[in-house]
Amino acid sequence: MALARLKSMRSVHQPAADSRSIAAGAAPSEAARILLSADRNLLCASVDWERHEAVFGSADHACYTVDLRRLKKARTLLGKTAGHREWVAAVCHLPGGRIASGGLDASICVWPAAGAACQRIKGHAGPISQLEPVPAAGAAAAFVSASYDKRLITWCCPGGSGGKARHQQVLAGHRAPVLQLQVAGGCAASGDRDGALLRWDLAAGAAVGGPLQAHTEHCTALAWWHVGSSGGSADEISSRGNLLLSGGQDGCVRLWDFRAGRQVAQQAAHAGPAGKGAVGSMSAGPPSAPNLVVTAGADRAVRGLEARRNLEPVWSQELPDFPYSQARSTSAVLLGCGDGTVVALEAADGSRRFALAASASAVRTLHAGPTCFVAGCDDGSAMVYSLT
């Protein structure tokens, strides 16, 4: 299994960073380098900005929490009778401070807000590829898991921070391993290794319509697009859970309108004369540029696409190495590269704000918050950079 396919960049309670904190041309100051795993990669991460906590999943089978106020490791989530027996491929924060983690051992662990005991739950017959929290107002489920067993499962956690997590609904419909998962309110979208997409009604526990053949190869990235700004216009509200961006191993980015059940825009953003560059990550609709989609690909390129103009490219930048991770602030996009570099670009025009050497190895995960951004690296270290 390719390591790059197992990355997860999910977070909850993630307010946008103040763009004024990221000065043009000047790199933020390094607040801390925290060694979490002596010799194994950090593969995935989630950040709860309200609790000032980051959690990282590692190839050493453990999860590690970091206190972002004290800038130090808080807990190691692994034990003789608790935790995973294989790589941790996905993590997410849950309401009440709990943490869910998914491993290549096909198990899901639900960890309490404090301590290192866990509830180990089984439901999948293959490695976990993604975990996504469900907003409290979206559905009864607390989170959704996706797996190489071609299924999704919704899980509920009664009693806030205390009740036991339990299996809720099995969502079956994919014909290939599920690689990508995104949740918007009471809807979810998933993409598989054959390039097919499915949209789900989480309350009903059923697919909405049949599979859409999005890509000729693996689906490698998904992002919801909410029309308009971060406000509450009728146009934006009606689009939630309906407009989905997909990226594939074929180098193409496509926009889907589930209300019409069809593709409405496409762009070969990372496919050209030199060959195909898989779309590794996407983000859409920051307040400063609500119709802009930013994609990063295996061709080492970052592109800004205008969603309302058939995903027309409006800017392009080359990166020093393969982009493993992407995070967004109010007006900047940060890219974590295979050579350990973090590059920050202005979202509106792609101009460079700064580049810094975070590690000697790949920056696997990135999350940007109101006062700092957090990187997880292949050398087992978590880097925290101050934006103030």
UniProtKB/TrEMBL annotation:
Protein name: Uncharacterized protein
UniProt entry keywords in alphabetical sequence: Repeat, WD repeat
Top-level taxon of origin: Eukaryota
PANTHER family per the UniProt record, alphabetical: F-BOX AND WD-40 DOMAIN PROTEIN 7, WD40 REPEAT PROTEIN
Residue spans of the WD repeats: 238-266
Pfam assignment, any one: WD40
The UniProt record lists the keyword Repeat: yes
InterPro entries in the record: WD40/YVTN_repeat-like_dom_sf, WD40_repeat_CS, WD40_repeat_dom_sf, WD40_rpt
UniProt keyword Protease present: no
Native source organism of the sequence: Chlorella variabilis (Green alga)
Source taxonomy: Eukaryota, Viridiplantae, Chlorophyta, core chlorophytes, Trebouxiophyceae
Matches recorded under PROSITE patterns: WD_REPEATS_1 (PS00678), WD_REPEATS_2 (PS50082)
